Amino acid sequence: MAASEKLYYKIGEIAEILNINTSVLRFWETQFESLSPSKTRTGQRLYSSRDFERIKEIYRLLYVQKLTIAGAKNRLSLNRKAKTTAESDPAELLQSVCYELRELRKLIE
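^ that's the sequence the OP posted. Answer follows.
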């Protein structure tokens, strides 16, 4: 772990790093089940470094790749399935890659 990398981030810190509003992060919590920050006694959200990585991935999907919320959810679930499949069966991994390529083709057309 790098010296500058923190274990926990406050919602304002993440919003400032990504240049988005804190309300966007609170909305994403309702839309993406994988985001579940812990809260302090005063109600301040604390995101773990793992949560921060998920947020950066969601940001990339929504703002860089211009996917919808539904598309980002779909892509995240495909990525999770691909990670578990890669560890288990190469044939299933190939199927998921083919599916992903078909989805990309639909986006291009």
